Please model this.
Amino acid sequence: MTSRRPSTGELTDAAPEDAPGTKRAQAAESDAGASAASGDDEPGLSAMRAVWLTMRDEAPPDRGLAELLAAARRQADVMRPPSLWQRLVAGLRRPPVLALATALVLIGGAVLIGRRLPDELSRPEPPAVSADPAGASRAGVVVQPRGETGSGQADERRRDPAGGPGAAEGPTDRPGNGSSATTDRPGGGDGLAGGGVGAVGAAAQDAPHPSPEAERASPRHATAPSAPALRPAERPLARDAVERHLAPPMPRARPSAPMAVPGAPVTPKDDGLVVGRDVPRPPAERVVVQRGASPPSSARNGAGASKAGEGAPSPTAARAGAEGRPGTGASSTAAAPTEEPARGENLGAKADDAPADSGPVAPTRRGATRGPVTREALAALYKQCAAAAQGGDCAAVKRLVEQIARTDRGYRARVAKDAAVAKCLAE
Amino acid sequence: MITDAADEDLMVLYQRGEVRAFELLLTRHRKPVYNFILRFVGDKETAEDLLQEAFMRVIKGAEAYKRQAKFTTWLYTIARNLCVDQTRRRKHRKHASLDAPMDTSDDSGTLMDVIPSNEMASDRKSVNKQLHETMQRAIAALSEEQREVFLMREFLDMPFKQIADVVGVPENTVKSRMRYALEKLRLDLDEYKDVAKAAP
Model:
């Protein structure tokens, strides 16, 4: 489409604006520039431009100006950058910073704990603990030589990482912590194993264990006061410290090794597995059950013996140690710390009732003097119970069963074997 | 001095919460924007509303403003879009006929009667006034695309490049539209050419 250039009057190929053919015309005319577009070269148009340039601009009314400024202030408040504190707080609340802070807290806590450990280890152990290895003698516990019981603590830990360290590091103030698993093991309990070990295990960890020779050589230790119990928080650390300082070069017994006490009564086990069916053993086999038996070390065994009034390692564990079975004994029982939480108390209660010659009584962590309960006494109770049941005196049977139940929680499994007793109990 | 700062700097200051910067921008651009809108839509009341709306949009969009953009380009783009929208809305309305009587009575005049005639006035003042009115009618008679380019080029003295940015078309298209706008004005105002030459 041919059209006339507005300013110059020349004929061009320019089509009306924005038409499909206008691009070429625009390209050709683009060089003409603003002067051609403004029409400066045409006198008539220049005169008209002078007219519209003289047209006055009208002033806008002030209506709405206040609203405009108010809106501008509101928006300025929104856009105003936050203060330094606001930015700091906002920055701290960002997830990466929170994660960093969490990591710092964790690392700091680890460092703090790591610093406290050497301090605890370097803390001097209580003199009673270190100087009184006589607890075992007082308890009448005979520690089997290392050659008989197997390896020591290191060996035990090496062979039984689950059991040994577990017992060594487990919470010692937890009742029932210790050898319950030992008694549950097939063949592990034969009347003396298992229950009640936990109540004494901590004591066994706290004091050195004398060698059998030392016990025999110094019978006065049998009446020596036991070492005071350490604070619960100190026990594991102090135990290790005691091990390092006091470990004598003597044959060491496994922690769960039976400490045969000549003439000492047998502590009944309260896990209810074996005690009832046992007959009294020869004095050489009598042991004091030790609750929560510690990892094997001579020092620890000695410590256990110092409070051995609470018990000694079970013969089951002793046999396991003698056979060199890994994971047996009290150390392996720490894996089941809460199986029977009240064992120790039961044992202690029975120990209070035990005769004075039934064995040494050492203060437990709970403060009471709890001695071992003889198997004879328990067996006598069972016999009385059976006799009463056969005689038809169910009231006496129930009374005796209650008496037995204070010591032996597994009494039901045993008394139920007797049909007469079971019948009385069923009534 | 904040009063000597460029528009872009003032806008950045306003982004930081400086209300004074926006007041300066308002002072600088309120009048030219208003006149651009007024000449575009041809109605004062509508022009006031559109001016208010244009600056409100500036306020709302201030947070997203980038320093790289020219403030006047942004401002007149907003104003032009508002004007275009207003013009398109007005097209759908029914306009009053210039020949129709304003009243139902037979002797009432028409709108054409009250609009100043194109006849030349005797004195200079009236001639200028008549020229201005004629000029406004001629500008209003331009197409929308030509009018916006003409107004920005002749009254706001914008370069073609900036007009192209505001309108959103290539620069050559802007020049072409300008050329056709001038051609149409020349034809419409041809009879006033001599009067314009004689005008002071």
